[in-house]
Amino acid sequence: MTYQTQGNDVVVRGEDAAVGGGDAAVEDSGSAARKPRVNFAQAAPKAFKALIGFDAAAREGLDPALVELVQIRSSQLNKCAYCLHMHTSDAHKAGESAERLHMVAVWEEAAHFFTAKERAALALTEAVTLVARGGVPDEVYERAARHFEEAELARLLALIFTINTWNRIAISTGKVPGTDER
């Protein structure tokens, strides 16, 4: 599939132009030519504020390092460059090592970089983020439940819900990675 800009229009060419059609190559001939999209915070302020409140409630009492790891992993899975840049930068500023940040994408193969609790959270993050691929397996949920008290587990789930929502907002509205507009 190829995206080409002609003036202000985007023309899609190729047989695999349907959404969800595998790993087709995408050629973007300049994201600078992209039309501005809705500013979600300005256009839907009540929804935006409600999501901020939900996000804040989810984080309450969770380890800040764990919060960033979860947000990074979900953003990687959702291919949200805007959120990935934001949360890796935030984690680095908060003192997270570059070494661990580089290993989040391959956390299962690099298990020794993460605690058992972090690995349980990352597994749950993957299952919830990719829920359409087979739900949340009992063993993943039970593993997380062994490491998190019920209220903490509920907040972890809420955190995973919120980062997935933020990813979808950033991708849908065309947020530009590196701008960190919050």
How would you write the strand order of the largest sheet?
1-2
Overall 3D form: globular
Beta fraction: 5-15%
Structural class, from helix and strand content? mainly alpha
> Radius of gyration from the CA trace?
18 Å
How would you sum up the major sheet?
2 strands, antiparallel
Number of helices: 8
Instruction: List how many beta strands DSSP finds.
Output: 2
**Into which percent range does the helicity of residues fall?**
40-55%
- Along the chain, the helix and strand elements come as EEHHHHHHHH
Q: CA-to-CA gap between the ends?
A: 32 Å
Mean pLDDT: 85
**Uncertain parts:** 1-30
List keywords for this structure.
54% helix, 182 residues, globular, two-stranded antiparallel sheet, single chain, mainly alpha, disordered N terminus, 5% strand
